[in-house]
Amino acid sequence: MDLLGESPLSQVELPTTDGAIALINLHSQIEGQMRPDRWHLLMVEQRARLVELIALRGQFLGCVADYEHAAGLAQQLVEDAPMEGICFFVRAKIASIFHRFSEALVDLDRAEALGMEQREVAAARAGIFQAMGRYDAALEVYQQAAEKQPNLDTLGKLASLKWEMGEIA
Predict the structure, then answer these.
(1) Which of 40, 34, 124 is nearest to 81 (CA)?
(2) CA nearest 92: which of 65, 115, 70, 62?
(3) Tens of pLDDT along 88-130?
(4) pTM (2 decimals)?
(5) Which of 7, 76, 100, 119 is least enclosed, having the fewest CB within 10 Å?
């Protein structure tokens, strides 16, 4: 501790990417793949990832237009590849952004039926249950995930839910 009561570690700057540069990189990645001559050449998984990136940019910037764009592309993806679980999974994630939870749950069921990884579907479903206030259903999924794979993601989701349930300790 120094005279001001600060730890020497609090004065150390950790090397990170500047936020503006990270957003420029994200925007460039999106725009490079969104060219009209390129979208239909992308594999289904690449298109699904692109939809998620557009939604992520919308989240970072608070841009509803990006969310709407992602929703339109997710719908197009389902229409183009209706036998691919990932298409329904991504559409469910976008629907939940707009709080269309019933639609999202139906899409998650369809994604799972089409072979989408059960663990990913369960995690998305639990997040929707939490948003709907169905804490018991979410808790079961989060506890199982934290037991099987205790990491920052699973433990963080469990802690967030418990806090929301009023279990601060």
Answers:
(1) 40
(2) 70
(3) 999 999 999 999 999 999 999 999 999 999 999 999 999 999 9
(4) 0.83
(5) 7
